[in-house]
């Protein structure tokens, strides 16, 4: 029997449906809104007076100089990419190993504990990571590597690696889990050892998902701000070794935007850095998304 | 304040909430659908609650600007002065519980920006406001910012305690910190580090928009030189001290009040081979310490009411004693016995009616020239040089 409908029911339902629709669409609106805002704030200087040549080829970043203001961001771009690259060199093998262990070799109870702990790792606020970099890692690197300065690229990269490992592990594990069990059974039936099965069958089969995991990890590393601001030493230079301090694009915005007079050249250049960052992370996320789509079509 | 609107909206949201469980009496499918609607309603109710709360807060602060039970003074600005401003605010809370002074840092630039926006009553500044900033404040609020000298700060230059270096000249500092400077290793200065691997100088500086950064650039590098690239730019005076304390090859600078026993403060000479002076109160008073600067508080227009009383108290011997306790140089000490300091009459007539010739009141339009003159006379020579380019 159909229950009796109250008179206001259709209106209420319509309202709720609209509200949920709005929630869904708002994500798109926010992304475009943010891009437009960032672009608008930086645009007037971008078209008039911005020297792209200097921005991309000079390391001389003197936004508040009294005598000769220069906006060369090469050192900042190198800083962002070198720290992210080093972070990935540390995080990818570590994250992949964890993902393979959790998905293939781990007893069920330990698996649950590991998954919860790794998710907890992802929940640590970045400023706490930065704090660890500033104090604990700082002293540790001074002692272990005999570095002249504890706040350096390696410090920032280790912190970033620890921050992106949870992403790599959880997405990587999903990708491995998505490989049909029949592949595993077939491999074992042919007399493979478990390691051979993982290396020759599972990894090639889950290739796309694992690549997406790595790309999202890179996205996290490129966009991270507070931890790198505190741990990398915040120094404008092209690093020649991993024990030298660097400065990233994100940290520069965080450190300088607060006190740059609104709509000044300096303020607008910081927004141009924002546009650059937006473009980089957009490209990375788009790449990851296309790769994941590739998997879905196959399976 | 349209609090009534929020309140009635909130009540209606609340009265709607008990209606939600009703569908559970009906068929299961129906209950599921209604159950899905519950979180939505809860979110809406929360949103309204938040709005109501925001409304309350707004109401409170706008009331405080007038004649509330408790008066709030918003005090923001220089990181160099934040410890001092905090000490003043706490002590003043004990003396005058009706007034609460809320202090925040962020840098001189942040303080000035808040003053221009009208979100701060008093801006702490370790440098003078520029003409452009004053014009912007005037254009934005219709009032001229008024300057109040409240103390002096001597910048300390420090190294790790393992470093045998104990004194340095401004010229040597300029070669360490300046763009294209010639000194990159401690051995360039003739310093033999106990650990030869620490010979490279780790140059620690501040982020490029801090007041301390600007003052150090002006006092050490001059007006025509920038910092070298590759300095470690820390985001606060405390971080500079902390990093130098942990890094044997480092050199850094910050306000004298931030130096701890874990770093070694250098004596500073004006010229190579000249006499080096320790960063002490006495040397700043005498004007022999080369890098000292005045500290200011800015208000929009002549201060009145609670803000005037607070500034008068800051200029009193009690307020100035806190300047000394937090590691800065006080006005009374700086003016010495010879010059009639502005702090003394301020203290004597602290209870006088607003507009009397008290310390901040002395800067009333008519007496402005006289006040400026007396301020210049009371400042130690080095500090006067620093803030009167």
Topology:
The complex is a heterodimer of chains A (about 300) and B (about 400).
Chain A: H1 9-47, H2 52-57, E1 61-62, E2 70-71, H3 74-105, H4 108-122, H5 126-144, H6 153-177, H7 181-189, H8 194-205, H9 207-223, H10 226-231, H11 249-256, H12 265-298
Antiparallel strand pairs in A: 1-2
Helix pairs in contact in A: 1-12, 3-6, 3-9, 4-6, 5-6, 6-9, 7-8, 9-12, 11-12
Chain B: H1 3-16, H2 28-65, E1 71-77, H3 82-95, E2 99-104, H4 108-117, E3 122-125, H5 131-141, E4 145-159, E5 167-169, H6 170-177, E6 202-206, H7 211-221, E7 232-234, H8 237-246, E8 250-255, E9 264-265, E10 267-269, E11 276-277, H9 281-286, E12 292-300, H10 305-315, H11 317-325, H12 331-335, H13 343-348, H14 368-378, H15 381-387
Provide key terms for this protein:
heterodimer, A: mainly alpha, MetI-like fold, two-stranded antiparallel sheet, 12 helices, 2 strands, B: about 400 residues, alpha/beta, nine-stranded mixed beta sheet, three-stranded mixed beta sheet, about 45% helix, disordered N terminus, disordered C terminus
CA-atom Rg of chain A in angstroms: 24 Å
Q: How many domains of chain A, as an integer?
A: 1
Terminal Cα span of chain B: 48 Å
- CATH fold assignment of chain A: MetI-like fold
Number of helices of chain B: 15
Structural class, from secondary structure content of chain B?
alpha/beta
Sketch the topology of chain A as an H/E string, one letter per element.
HHEEHHHHHHHHHH
Residue windows where pLDDT falls under 50 for at least 5 positions of chain A? none
> What is the CA-based Rg of chain B, rounded?
27 Å
User: What is the strand content of chain A?
Assistant: under 5%
Give the second-level CATH assignment, the architecture of chain A.
Orthogonal Bundle
Cα distance spanning the termini of chain A: 42 Å
Helix content of chain A: over 70%
Largest sheet of chain A: 2 strands, antiparallel
Greatest interface by residues involved: A-B, 41 and 39 residues
Kindly state the mean pLDDT of chain B as a whole number? 73
CATH class of chain A: Mainly Alpha
Biggest sheet character of chain B: 9 strands, mixed
Q: What is the percent of helical residues of chain B?
A: 40-55%
- The name of the CATH superfamily of chain A reads MetI-like
What spatial form of chain A do the alpha-carbon principal axes imply?
Answer: globular
């Amino acid at each position: 029997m159909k229950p009796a409908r109250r008179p206001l029911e259709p209106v209420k339902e319509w309202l709720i449906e609209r509200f949920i629709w709005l929630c869904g669409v708002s994500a798109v609106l926010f992304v475009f809104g943010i891009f437009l805002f960032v672009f608008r704030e930086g645009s007037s200087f971008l078209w008039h007076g911005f020297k792209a040549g200097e921005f991309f080829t000079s390391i001389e970043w003197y936004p508040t100089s009294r005598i000769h203001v220069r906006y060369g961001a090469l050192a900042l771009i190198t800083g962002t990419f070198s720290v992210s690259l080093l972070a990935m060199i540390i995080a990818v093998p570590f994250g992949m190993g964890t993902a393979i262990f959790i998905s293939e070799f781990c007893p069920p109870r330990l698996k649950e504990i590991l998954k919860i702990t790794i998710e907890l790792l992802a929940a640590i606020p970045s400023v706490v990571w930065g704090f660890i970099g500033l104090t604990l890692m700082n002293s540790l690197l001074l002692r272990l590597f005999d570095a002249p300065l504890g706040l350096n690229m390696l410090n920032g990269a280790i912190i970033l690696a620890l921050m992106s490992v949870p992403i790599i592990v959880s997405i990587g594990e999903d990708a491995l889990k998505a490989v049909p069990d029949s592949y595993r059974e077939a491999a074992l039936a042919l007399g493979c050892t478990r390691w051979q099965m993982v290396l020759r069958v599972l990894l090639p089969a889950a290739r796309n998902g694992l690549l997406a995991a790595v790309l999202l990890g890179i996205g996290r590393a490129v966009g991270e701000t507070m931890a790198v601001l505190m741990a990398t030493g915040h120094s404008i230079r092209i690093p020649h070794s991993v024990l030298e301090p660097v400065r990233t694009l994100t940290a520069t915005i965080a450190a300088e935007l607060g006190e740059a007079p609104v709509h000044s050249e300096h303020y607008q250049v910081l927004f141009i850095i924002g546009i650059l960052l937006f473009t980089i992370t957009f490209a990375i996320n788009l790449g990851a998304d296309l790769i994941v789509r590739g998997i879905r079509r196959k399976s | 304040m349209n609090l009534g609107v929020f309140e009635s909206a909130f009540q209606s949201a609340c009265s709607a909430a008990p209606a939600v469980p009703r569908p559970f009496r009906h068929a299961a499918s129906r209950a599921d659908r209604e159950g899905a609607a519950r979180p939505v309603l809860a979110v809406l109710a929360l949103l309204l609650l938040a709005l109501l709360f925001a409304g309350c807060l707004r109401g409170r602060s706008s009331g405080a600007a007038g004649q509330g039970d408790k008066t709030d003074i918003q005090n923001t600005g220089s990181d160099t002065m934040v410890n001092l401003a905090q000490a003043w605010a706490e002590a003043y809370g004990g003396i005058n519980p009706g007034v609460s002074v809320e202090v925040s840092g962020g840098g001189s630039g942040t303080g000035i920006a808040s003053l221009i926006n009208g979100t701060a009553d008093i801006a702490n500044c370790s440098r003078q406001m520029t003409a452009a900033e004053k014009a912007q404040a005037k254009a934005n609020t219709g009032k001229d910012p008024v300057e109040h000298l409240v103390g002096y700060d001597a910048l300390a230059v420090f190294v790790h305690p393992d470093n045998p270096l104990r004194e340095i000249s401004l010229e040597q500092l300029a070669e360490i910190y300046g763009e294209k400077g010639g000194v990159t290793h401690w051995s360039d200065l003739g310093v033999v580090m106990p650990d030869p691997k620490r010979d490279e100088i780790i140059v620690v500086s501040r982020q490029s928009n801090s007041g301390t950064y600007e003052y150090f650039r002006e006092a050490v590098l001059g007006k025509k030189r920038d910092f070298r690239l590759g300095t470690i730019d820390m985001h606060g005076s405390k971080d500079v001290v902390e990093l130098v304390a942990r890094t044997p090859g480092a050199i850094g600078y910050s306000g004298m009040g931030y130096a701890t026993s874990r770093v070694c403060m250098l004596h500073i000479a004006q010229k190579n081979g000249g006499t080096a002076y320790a960063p002490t109160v006495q040397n700043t008073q005498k004007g022999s310490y080369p890098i000292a600067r005045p500290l200011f508080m800015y208000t929009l227009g002549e201060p009145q009411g609670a803000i005037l009383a607070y500034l008068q108290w800051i200029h009193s011997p009690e307020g100035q004693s806190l300047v000394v306790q937090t590691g800065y140089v006080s006005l009374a000490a700086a003016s010495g016995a010879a010059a009639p300091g502005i702090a003394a009459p301020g203290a004597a007539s602290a209870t006088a009616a607003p507009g009397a010739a008290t310390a901040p009141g002395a800067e009333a339009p008519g007496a402005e020239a006289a006040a400026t003159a007396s301020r210049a006379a009371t400042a130690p020579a080095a500090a006067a040089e620093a803030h009167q380019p």
